[in-house]
UniProtKB/TrEMBL annotation:
<dbReference type="Pfam" id="PF03102">
    <property type="entry name" value="NeuB"/>
</dbReference>
<dbReference type="InterPro" id="IPR013132">
    <property type="entry name" value="PseI/NeuA/B-like_N"/>
</dbReference>
<keyword id="KW-0808">Transferase</keyword>
<dbReference type="InterPro" id="IPR057736">
    <property type="entry name" value="SAF_PseI/NeuA/NeuB"/>
</dbReference>
<dbReference type="InterPro" id="IPR036732">
    <property type="entry name" value="AFP_Neu5c_C_sf"/>
</dbReference>
<dbReference type="InterPro" id="IPR020030">
    <property type="entry name" value="Pseudaminic_synth_PseI"/>
</dbReference>
<dbReference type="InterPro" id="IPR006190">
    <property type="entry name" value="SAF_AFP_Neu5Ac"/>
</dbReference>
<protein>
    <submittedName>
        <fullName>Pseudaminic acid synthase</fullName>
        <ecNumber>2.5.1.97</ecNumber>
    </submittedName>
</protein>
<feature type="domain" description="AFP-like">
    <location>
        <begin position="295"/>
        <end position="351"/>
    </location>
</feature>
<dbReference type="Pfam" id="PF08666">
    <property type="entry name" value="SAF"/>
</dbReference>
<dbReference type="InterPro" id="IPR013974">
    <property type="entry name" value="SAF"/>
</dbReference>
<dbReference type="GO" id="GO:0016740">
    <property type="term" value="F:transferase activity"/>
</dbReference>
<dbReference type="InterPro" id="IPR013785">
    <property type="entry name" value="Aldolase_TIM"/>
</dbReference>
<dbReference type="InterPro" id="IPR051690">
    <property type="entry name" value="PseI-like"/>
</dbReference>
Length: 351
């Protein structure tokens, strides 16, 4: 398997040799307003995100209108809500998709979506979506993964709640279905999620096990976990965002506001730049600081042929003379030329 797998979405290469690919997850934070959804595209573009992700489902394509306990959420952010009611509030109407894709193209930001059934895939194909995301709870829906894979588009799979076997099955289904460009995201399906639950060391393990581009779907409340993920090899980071965390939408409470999203984009790219390559020696920015290193200097005037004694040289700053490790090589040697005090001592001066 390749040590450095990569994929390309809408012409942008994604892998550890490229800056982190930042996906701003709109989710349900449109709060039922197409105008707000269009504005959120603009916010993500201005913040420096590479892409925006939406979710393509209706309440009827993702669940059933049941009233039994099976369909009631207990505990957490949406305690007491009926699944059908929650998804009806959060859904991205089918007729919003075309204007959203058109606006994204106008802005120059990539837009793609998480489909939750075949009808959503067909809709997104009709709009020439450049990639697909499989949400964590759908990672076990292998028929859906195979159908998405049949489009031939790049696919991203989140793995919240999935065990090692389920991740392997999802990857296998994607590849058997025809997917040639695959990314797998470490994710914790908590809203919000606790950093200590993320076990980010799984990111390089995903690369090693499956030969995929690895990344992070981050549901924590700040950007520390995401930054750490880049250091461990995350090439793609997805984060929920909103206009106002107190806006009252289903996902607002655990989403970044615009200034925070912009900060995240900057910090992720700074972290990636800091990784660099395996290299030792002074960086270009350090070259002016040789003055502060130590080296061997003459501390008295010496004539040609004079013997160098301990009182004639010292190891001091700056660093323009011979390295301190050569100090003893000067002692007892005769000068090949006359030197003045406070000048750098070079091995070529003695013999």
């Amino acid at each position: 398997m390749s040590q450095h797998p990569s994929i390309t979405i809408a012409g942008r290469p994604i892998g550890i040799n490229h800056p982190p690919y930042v996906v701003a997850e709109m989710s349900a934070n449109h709060n039922g307003s197409l105008e707000r959804a269009l504005h959120l595209l603009e916010v993500a573009q201005q913040a420096g995100a590479d892409a925006v992700k939406i979710q393509s489902y209706t309440a009827d394509t993702i669940t059933l209108p049941g009233d039994t306990e099976d369909f009631i959420i207990r505990g957490g952010l949406w305690d007491g809500r009926r699944l059908h009611e929650l998804y009806r509030e959060a859904e991205m109407p089918w007729d919003w998709h075309a204007p959203l894709f058109a606006h994204a193209r106008k802005l120059g930001i990539t837009l793609f979506s998480s489909p939750f059934d075949r009808t959503a895939v067909d809709l997104l194909e009709s709009l020439d979506a450049p990639a697909y995301k499989i949400a964590s709870f759908e990672a076990v829906d292998l028929p859906l993964i195979r159908y998405v894979a049949s489009t031939g588009k790049p696919m991203i799979i989140s793995t919240g709640m999935a065990n090692a076997q389920e991740v392997a099955e999802a990857v296998q289904a994607a590849r058997e279905g025809g997917c040639r460009e695959l990314a797998v995201l470490r994710c914790v399906s908590g809203y919000p999620a606790a950093p200590q639950d993320y076990n980010l060391r799984a990111i390089p393990d995903l690369v090693q096990r499956h030969g995929v581009v690895a990344g992070l779907s981050d549901h924590t409340l700040d950007d520390t976990t995401a930054i750490a993920s880049v250091a461990l090899g995350a090439a793609l980071v997805e984060k929920h965002y909103t206009l106002d965390r107190n806006g009252g939408g289903p996902d607002d409470a655990f989403s970044l506001e615009p200034a925070e999203l912009a900060r995240l984009c900057r910090h992720l790219r700074t972290a990636w730049q800091a990784l660099g390559v395996v290299r030792y020696g002074p960086a270009a920015s350090e070259n002016g600081n040789v003055k502060f290193r130590r080296s061997v200097y003459f501390v008295k005037d010496l004539a040609e042929g004079e013997v160098v004694t301990e009182d004639a040289i010292r190891v001091v700053r700056p660093g323009y003379g011979a390295a301190p490790k050569h100090y003893e090589a000067f002692l007892g040697k005769r000068m090949r030329r006359a030197v003045a005090r406070y000048t750098p001592a070079q091995l070529a001066d003695v013999g």
